[in-house]
Amino acid sequence: MLYYMKLTRELEDRIERKLYRQGKILGGVYVGRGQEAITVGACMDLDGNDAICVSHRDMAAFLMRGVTPRQILAQYMGRKTGLTRGKDGNMHMGSLDHNLIAFISMLGDSIPIAAGVGLSYRLRGMKQVTVCFFGDGASSRGDWHEGLNMASVLKCPVVYVCNNNQYAYSTPLEQQMAVENVADRASAYGMPGDIVDGNDVVAVWQAVNRAVERARGGGGPSMVECKSFRMTGHSAHDDARYVPKELFEYWEKRDPITRLETSMRDLGDLTENKLAEMNGRVVAEVDEAVELADNDPYPDPEDCLTGVYFEG
Amino acid sequence: MGLTTYVEAIREGIREEMSTDERVFVLGEDVAVYGGAFKVTAGMLEEFGENRVIDTPISESGIVATAIGAAMMGMRPVAEMQFADFISCAFDQITNFAAKCRYRWGAGVPIVVRGPSGGGIHGGPFHSQNPEMYFVHTPGLKVVCPATAYDAKGLIKAAIRDPDPVIFFEHKFLYRRVKEELPGADYVVPLGEAEVRRAGSDISVITYGAMVFRALDAAKELEREGIDLEVIDLRSLLPWDRHTVLESVKKTNKVILLHEATRTGGFAGELAAVIAEEAFEHLDGPIRRITAPDTPVPYSPPMEEFFLPQVSDVVRVARELNDY
After folding, report:
1. pTM of whole model > 0.95?
2. Does the predicted interface ipTM exceed a cut of 0.85?
3. Tens digit of each residue's pLDDT (9 = 90 or more) over B68-92
4. Is residue A305 part of a domain?
5. Smallest CA–CA separation between B56 and chain A, in Å?
6. What is the model's pLDDT at position A26?
């Protein structure tokens, strides 16, 4: 878990703080700094056949499924070797080979999509489940509500994981919803709504595993709300000056990676040597990936005309 | 063999595909126990069971999205919109999710979204619309508008087998008004191919859906005056059959574009542009459009009749064009 959290952090830092500022990435950059525990904890024990409906701060899901840092960087840099071959940018990608379902910018659309993925498992008597990530902002969309209702009524094996990072672009939670917790709404759809510390990877892992077991056993969908904080702006161009400084300071002290390191040290599971080795490995992997991706080719301009329909 | 109505033809087409392909299932509002508001799916629950014929909450966006999710996982969902008007609620899922998945990340979305469109039954502004053009403007989708029972069956089967998302606009005025004898053997009507409904030499009427019959009735009337209409039924709007249309225009040199949808941004505009670009020198008169006016569909019978293109409109414009 620590390795994937660190790899995600390093890769995203490189993208946001270096490649974007160097002008090597021209489009949007959305990172999940400070929220890595949610994706890593939720995906840790999933079977490779379980689909994951990602959102835009879930890079770890790609890494955990075997998508390489090079492919992710190529995607960001608009190269032919990215998962969308230059057709789309940043985290707007998916891969059916890896059971990763791409989201679209209309966040919340994935909620009923996940219901359909889950329904396809149930109708065919398959044991798979799907985990669907979304943010607090997405929970205001109509599709979010339609999707949860649909999943519940049709008893779809889905685990809805909320990354509640407390800001939707510049809008704070209290202007997004009139209830205290996103999970308070789960009962309205007849599903359990668990609330966990989203910066505690073990807590996320345990809560999602419970929900996965329930879904796999035919118990239908659940929601797990992970309380966290967006340690960045909405995207790389946004300096987040609307966020009170004290909030960043408060959450910095609760950084999920530091916390996991500390508890592993306390348990005697992590030596300084092991930590240094892991840090070095992560930096080396990202260094190599940047080098490779930066030399990957751009698509041909006329490639934009291909792939609209099935081409055999 | 007896005669099969348009609505029965669609039902037969879906049933046959469900029988031969276990990936195919039906979902929508009131489609199972009730058999659909227009009875398109009547009897399917009894035949295929509740795992293949699924009643859903009233959630058009949710229905389409659920279909998309299942389709990406290898199934072949057929989603019903109780009225095509309600497809507006699912616009985002269709145009942004379904239509762009293949282009962005290579994920095919083989769904069919079908439902009754069109006026003539006094349904008013929300049960009579022809929303096809919203979707014709979206690359990644296919759009189909059958006019006959034969085509309705052959096209729904082709739509279900198609690897891309197909929006299938049935015409509710035709459900029980048109019927014909259908072949017993399996057949499909390929998407994107028009049909010459009536060969003629003087004026091409290019149309689709219920307006095909208005054009044919007008042709019968004009026959007596020695005006010979050719009637082209487009059947598919996306993709559409440029070859058949252009060949017809090159033969008759005069063209009427007829549709029930409203005028501005209607399919006639696209047809006119392509004809002007590619067959300009063959034209012996102005391209004429006959369409509904740019208003919502009115309810009251005299207003609705005024709103919908009539046989008399085709006859009048054809006479003007003939004299041109």
Report:
1. yes
2. yes
3. 999 999 999 999 999 999 999 999 9
4. no
5. 7
6. 86
| A123/B74 touch (CB, cutoff 8 Å), yes or no | no
Confidence of residue B1 (pLDDT cuts 50, 70, 90): low
What is the least distance, in Å, from the CA of B171 to any CA of chain A? 26
Give B-chain residues touching A121 at CB under 8 angstroms: 73
Could you tell me if B167 and B142 are in contact, meaning their C-beta atoms sit under 8 angstroms apart?
A: yes
- Residues on chain B bordering chain A, Cβ-to-Cβ distance under 8 angstroms: 25, 51-52, 54, 56-57, 59, 61-63, 65-75, 77, 92-93, 96-97, 100-108, 139-140, 142, 162-164
State the total domains in chain A.
Answer: 1
Residue A302 lies in a domain: no
Q: Is residue A303 part of a domain?
A: no
Size of interface A-B (CB pairs under 8 A): 133
Whole-angstrom distance, CA of residue B316 vs CA of residue B52: 50
- Is B282 one of the catalytic residues? no
Domain with A248, as residue range(s), is 2-297
| Closest residue by Cα to residue B174 from B149, B153, B151 | B149
CA nearest to A193, candidates A156, A155, A152: A152
Structural domains of chain B sorted by starting position, each given as residue range(s) with its CATH number in brackets: 4-180 (3.40.50.970), 195-323 (3.40.50.920)
Percent of all residues in chain B with a pLDDT value above 70, rounded to a whole number: 100
What CATH number is given to the structural domain containing A29? 3.40.50.970
What's the CA gap between B158 and A3, in Å, rounded? Answer: 49
Residues of chain A under the 50 pLDDT cut = none
Mode of pairing for the β-strands spanning B203-207 and B255-262: parallel
